[in-house]
Amino acid sequence: MSRFVIIFLACIVIAPLAAYLLENRFPALVSSGTFADYRADDEDDSGANETGERSHRISANRQGHFVADAYLNGRAVDMLVDTGATVTVLPESLAENIGIFLNSSDYKYAIRTANGTVHGAKATIDNLRIGKIRLRNIDTLVLKDQSLGEPLLGMSVLNQLKRFDISDGTLVLVQ
User: Fold this and answer.
1) pTM of the full predicted structure?
2) Domain ranges across the chain
3) Which residue has the higher pLDDT, 7 or 30?
């Protein structure tokens, strides 16, 4: 009987530690399932309005750009909103950090950028969250780090929203 109690107490002590280690060491595993959707938000409920729409406001920075505080597969990422980008684009190191691993042979798509033509790989972001807005299965391109300075939130995300509006230095996203 005492063995039973000791094992039970050990499980109670180890369970929170195991959850912490799983979330921090293997974030792609945690965020790829429904588990990530039920994590507590550290924001209030002001993102939902009376019609049930979810909205999020982003103020322009000093340069006039909109930078979204996004969560990709559970990882916090600052993304430059780029309405001129057809798809969302990630640097390779960030893609790996959120659980997207590619081979050299995957970089077979010629992409025209402001800096010339580069090769990218198609991938999918399982979960994306911006404030109260939640999207799944986002088409994305991954570029080598030297080809992309920062991640771009492109039209592959914005087209999944009900609407987005820019006025008075504020971008409003509505799902």
Assistant:
1) 0.70
2) 1-39, 42-174
3) 7
